[in-house]
Design goal:
Number of helices: 6
Helix content: 55-70%
Shape: globular
Strand content: under 5%
Order of helices and strands: HHHHHH
Radius of gyration: 21 Å
Oligomer: single chain
Number of strands: 0
Largest sheet: none
Distance between the termini: 81 Å
Number of domains: 1
Length: about 150
């Protein structure tokens, strides 16, 4: 059991360090929740519709569009790694939230399917829509309506 207690004893934990760790954990968790809430409120209501274009800065020059896409993916991978580190025991912070944020930023095959699967969970969708309603935003639309103006027959 010494191999387990020796590293803990070498940390020289004091109440000040424990309190600082707890405060850091609470602050980063609250910040993570605030960031995720902000992003969910800012999402367009049709974000999860199949017909919504996915290109970043479509109207921009290809070099700017490519650079933006690379930076977005680098930020996403960085967030993933940071989230994994924050998820380790003893490290304060909202690891799972940062991992989810990283996943939304990184482009990979099956990402749309994963996002739709997560948001179609009834509890997730109702929580997100309640949050959006609180800030005066319309609820998320998951499917295009069956009858669009172009599909009407006369």
């Amino acid at each position: 059991m010494e191999w387990l207690t020796d590293p803990l004893n070498s940390l020289e934990l004091t109440w000040d360090k424990i309190l600082l760790g707890l405060l850091l954990f609470a602050a980063t968790s609250a910040g993570g929740i605030a960031l995720v809430s902000f992003l969910l409120v800012k999402l367009p209501a049709t974000y999860f519709c199949d017909g919504r274009p996915r290109d970043l800065w479509v109207e921009r020059h290809p070099i700017i569009r490519w650079t933006g896409r690379v930076l977005k993916n680098v930020l996403g991978v960085t967030a993933l790694f940071l989230g994994v580190i924050l998820s380790l025991p003893g490290i304060p912070g909202p690891g799972v939230l940062v991992i989810l944020l990283g996943i939304t930023l990184v482009d990979f095959p099956g990402k749309r399917r994963l996002e739709r699967w997560l948001v179609t969970r009834p509890k997730v969708l109702s929580t997100v829509n309640r949050l959006r309603q609180r800030y005066g935003r319309p609820p998320l639309v998951l499917e295009q309506s069956e009858e669009s103006p172009d599909s009407r027959t006369t």
